[in-house]
Amino acid sequence: MGKNIQEIKDVKGFLPRSVAYAERLNEDFGEGLAGFYKSVWAEREGGLSMKNKHLMVFAVACSNNNVESAVKIMERLHKFGATRAEIVDTMMIAAWTGGIQNFTDFSAAILKEMEKLGY
């Protein structure tokens, strides 16, 4: 297991499926994908906060009607201190960009997860 792959595994506690699959295909490909993953989620001075990055990916998941991913991201949003108002605003932006039908489709699962997390 390469350095980037091991670092991702250590930080997340598990290896993202995309990295695991890439490594199974080719170790260099796995290392490259793990490096890309690290770069995207790195905290940089003057860059987006982890909370804001997760709000963005939450909006994309919701607007693409990727309910399973959106529910998983809710746990990260909770961990990084996102407020109910921030989550609601993000859901409304997702409805704006993804269409009201997607909003209808993802809202039930998100509202259930929000209740579970105490929002």
TrEMBL record:
GO molecular function: peroxiredoxin activity
Pfam families cross-referenced by the UniProt entry: CMD
Residue intervals of the Carboxymuconolactone decarboxylase-like domain: 28-109
Source domain of life: Archaea
Protein name stated in the entry: Carboxymuconolactone decarboxylase-like domain-containing protein
Protein's organism: Methanosarcina mazei (strain ATCC BAA-159 / DSM 3647 / Goe1 / Go1 / JCM 11833 / OCM 88)
